[in-house]
UniProtKB/TrEMBL annotation:
GO molecular function, one term: tRNA (adenine(22)-N1)-methyltransferase activity
Pfam families in UniProt: TrmK
Organism: Sporosarcina psychrophila (Bacillus psychrophilus)
Protein name (Swiss-Prot/TrEMBL): tRNA (Adenine(22)-N(1))-methyltransferase TrmK
Matching InterPro entries: SAM-dependent_MTases_sf, TrmK
């Protein structure tokens, strides 16, 4: 397998998988991540779960082409229902979807997480949904990462079992990301701030109704919070 083909985003997700883990990659269009993990010998076995037929077939084809059919089981299944008893999956990766969809997948299949001790989530947007899910379900954030690739900014959240409490800013921006404030992190939040200021400015030009007033208050609240993200 040509590991150069794997995006930096998925390589970053792979870097949080422990050596010898048994991984279920949920939403495994093409099964690139499981193939990379097996190819680099980081894991011996993995499950690739996909809910849509086309991507599932691409995953099956890819696994076969790479010669990994013994090591990687591809299943057509909704979310965590790709994990079966006896798989001994200890690590779940879910990448390339919105935060709310990832949180819904975790919530609706959470009984399948009983043997899982690490979840590596890579939301494309609204990562807060995953942090809120983690707090409600006794998972704690043990690391986070932010990166930019092809003009897009991505976050990675690594969860292990444990109860944590996060404040408003940590839920929104991520406790580890907030503490390290990398250039990419600052770029993300400066971009959000500019966007919300733009929305607020255009709302101010609109005739005031109750709905517009509420929206303006909401935008002002976001802007204040993002200001704190950038300055604290
Ligand atoms: N994980 C890959 C990545 O990060 O490049 C693929 C991301 S792709 C944008 C999202 C994939 O998740 C799609 O193939 C979609 O069919 C799949 N998906 C969405 N909802 C799912 C669910 N409930 N269960 C399994 N797969 C799902």
């Amino acid at each position: 397998m040509n590991s150069e083909r794997l995006s930096n985003r998925l390589k970053a997700v792979a870097s949080y998988v422990k050596e010898g883990a048994v991984v279920a990659d949920i939403g495994s269009d093409h099964a690139y991540l499981p193939c990379f993990l097996v190819h680099t010998k980081k894991v011996k076995t993995a499950i690739a779960g996909e809910v849509a037929k086309g991507p599932y077939e691409s995953a099956v084809k890819n696994v076969r082409r790479e010669g990994f059919s013994e090591a990687i089981t591809v299943r057509l299944a909704d979310g965590l229902f790709a994990i079966e008893e006896g798989d001994a999956v200890d690590t779940v990766t879910i990448a390339g979807m919105g935060g709310p969809l990832i949180a819904t997948i975790l919530e609706s299949g959470k009984e399948r997480l009983s043997q899982v001790n690490r979840i590596i989530a890579q939301p494309n947007i609204y990562s807060r949904a995953i942090r809120e899910w983690a707090v409600s379900n006794k998972w704690t954030i043990i690391d986070e990462h932010i990166l930019k690739e092809d003009g897009k900014i991505y976050e990675i959240i690594v969860l292990e079992k444990g109860q944590a409490m996060y404040g408003e800013l940590e839920l929104m921006a991520g406790p580890f990301l907030l503490a390290s404030k990398t250039d990419v992190f600052l770029e993300k939040w400066e971009g959000e701030l500019a966007e919300w200021n733009r929305v607020l400015a255009s709302l101010k030009k609109t005739a005031e109704t109750d709905a517009i007033k509420k929206k303006k208050e909401q935008m002002s609240g976001y802007i204040e919070l993002v200001g704190k993200v950038l300055t604290t």
